[in-house]
């Protein structure tokens, strides 16, 4: 699994400032997260800390952010220096993580779409389950596995999406546009709804 976010961290950070991120994505994520006040939160695949910071600002008692990309964590820590929220950030891999503790809420915005097959998805889910307190909550934003359109242009909203196929593991390419209309690409992986249901039925 490549960590190409090291090369596109600044462009990705810009894409988080677009209106649909703020008014649709963030709104939806916080709605499903429920009441965060006083809770411990683990933000897996936290990127440059967009949601990580908001969890703290919304009253979480403690927030830990983890991402595979060193550059994304560098941006998150720079923001922490400018405006300290006392968030802890680490470089880490959601496929191989053992923090030795549990959280009230685990959030993973666009992590599961980096699993390239059912086995990796199962590993991520086991690791999430291992870090969640009994009765804790897991929230995620992910690609829609039921999307049947090979190409979607949301150019006026700042991105395009091309799906290379509909078999498990097929690439889904996103192009994220900057204001000067240059773009960067990132690659996710398609896993079917059936695959996701099979994983959710597996015992630990
Ligand atoms: C689309 S970005 C989302 C960032 C952030 N959650 C957000 O919504 O702004 C996907 C992030 O997943 C991270 N990532 C991909 N695979 C990962 C893994 N196995 N463990 C931890 N982070 C991972 C990437 O480095 C990248 O920062």
Describe it.
This protein has a domain at 5-144: 3-Layer(aba) Sandwich (Rossmann fold), CATH 3.40.50.150. The model has no long low-confidence stretch (mean pLDDT 92). It has helices at 5-15, 19-33, 50-57, 70-82, 118-130, 193-201; strands at residues 40-44, 62-67, 88-91, 103-109, 132-141, 151-154, 159-163, 171-177, 183-189. The strands form two sheets. The protein has a five-stranded parallel β-sheet with strand order 3-2-1-4-5. The chain has a four-stranded antiparallel β-sheet with strand order 6-7-8-9, with helices on one face. Helix content is 34%, strand content 27%. With 204 residues, the protein is α/β, with parallel strands linked by helices. Helix 1 (5-15) crosses helix 4 and helix 5 crosses helix 6.
